[in-house]
Backbone:
């Protein structure tokens, strides 16, 4: 199952859409998937050969597919990426590696925090597009809904792998989620 990674028709994709809304959504989602890729890269750098390595790799593979799709949507809808990508490159890797240095539970706590923030953000975007015109944004809605479901699955995997037993879990989760909110706010606009 899953979402087809075919390119949408540029002509179809641009006709009658609310450009500012679509640009903001695609820009921030691209940045988020880029950041998620860097987080999982950091986690794999530290825990790749551990017992949790295959679990992290599986989630990372899905994030790679998400990023590929948003790369395609950026071209199809002619959306520029956020200028903050170089920063998210470093920040994502540092967050991933840093949380993994706390051990498997730390990495999973990071996953839970990030994926919960992202799935909530995707839900907000789904509501926005449904209010705009669900038929006009059918493909984009399908993509976002599928990716939201994948992020919820990653969240649940994190919980299944003892995220809540990480040192200072609630503090770590709150700090990471505040960072996610800031990243979302900035990436939508810059």
Residues:
């Amino acid at each position: 199952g899953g979402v087809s990674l075919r390119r949408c028709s540029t002509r179809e994709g641009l006709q009658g859409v609310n450009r500012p809304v679509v640009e903001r959504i695609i820009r921030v989602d691209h940045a988020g998937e880029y950041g998620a890729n860097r987080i999982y890269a950091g986690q794999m750098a530290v825990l790749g050969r551990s017992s949790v390595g295959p679990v992290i790799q599986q989630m990372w593979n899905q994030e790679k597919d998400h990023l590929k799709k948003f790369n395609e949507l950026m071209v199809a809808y002619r959306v520029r990426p956020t200028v903050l990508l170089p920063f998210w490159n470093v920040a994502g890797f540092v967050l991933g590696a840093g949380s993994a240095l706390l051990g498997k539970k730390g990495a999973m706590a990071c996953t839970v925090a990030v994926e919960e923030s992202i799935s909530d953000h995707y839900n907000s975007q789904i509501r926005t597009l449904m209010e705009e015109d669900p038929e006009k944004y059918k493909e984009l809605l399908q993509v976002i809904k599928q990716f939201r479901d994948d992020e919820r699955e990653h969240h649940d995997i994190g919980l299944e792998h003892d995220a809540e037993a990480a040192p200072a879990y609630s503090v770590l989760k709150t700090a990471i989620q505040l960072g996610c909110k800031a990243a979302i706010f900035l990436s939508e606009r810059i």
Observations:
- The chain has seven helices and no strands.
